[in-house]
Amino acid sequence: MKTEIDIEVTVTEIIRQFGILAHIKGYRYLKRALILCTENSEMVIAATALLYPTLVAEFGTTSSRVASSISRAIGTAWNKGNREALNQYFNKTVLAKSRKPANAEFIAGVSDRLRLKLKIKMQG
Q1: Most buried by CB count within 10 Å: which residue of 87, 88, 94, 119?
Q2: What is the extent of the structural domain holding 16?
């Protein structure tokens, strides 16, 4: 239970640092997607087969709404967000590209880093 709470708190802090605030369309979906993928790395590997259907069921929406809303939230972070915070999760080569990462690419990058952070925290 404590780890679950830690993940939610940490994910919330991360996405807010990126510049994705609660009123932005896609915030809830992205937050939940990051939590799910941090808890289970298989989710991000099969985003369209596992992750999106899970979000659709939880939020009572459609897969296309989930995908486009998450994409908008990522776009907000990528275009207007905190570059220093993004640098901590994505290397400068990724940040230098003119295009924002795909949903799965973004979620995988953040959740993988977060999973490692939590693992180190639990060991230390």
Answers
A1: 94
A2: 2-123
